Amino acid sequence: PGYGDSPPAEMVATAQGRVAFLDHVLQELGIRRPVLISPSMSGRFALPFLLARGDRLAGFVPIAPVGTKDYAAEQYQQVQTPTLILYGDRDTSLGHQALQSLRHLPRHEVAMVPGAGHACYLDKPEDVHR
């Protein structure tokens, strides 16, 4: 809500609101301890959720998410959620920028997708799934 072609939504205007929204969605779907995959713009929802409720996740897979610079290294260092950081080697902006911040997560691994751009999941879906 509030992004793309969806109408503006007051409830997601703040990071706390986005955490509450994502928490509500997971509860409504009955999903417990999911692996949260976060490409690009979804970082505005996923990153605050990871920092506030990372203990509710079995894993986190950020794919060049936006908003990584909004948090300090110390905040990332508190997160114990296993994380696989993905980015395309042809992503000239967000992939490397996000990696610089996310590498402060203590339980992370990095996987670069060769021959893929920012939307590496569209450019090389087989490689991303593997």
Automatic annotation (TrEMBL):
GO terms for cellular component: cytoplasm. It is found in: Cytoplasm. GO terms for molecular function: hydrolase activity. The keyword Transmembrane helix does not apply. InterPro entries: AB_hydrolase_fold. The keyword Cytoplasm applies. Keywords: Cytoplasm, Hydrolase. Its main location: cytoplasm. This is Alpha/beta hydrolase domain-containing protein 14A. The lineage of its organism: Eukaryota, Metazoa, Chordata, Craniata, Vertebrata.
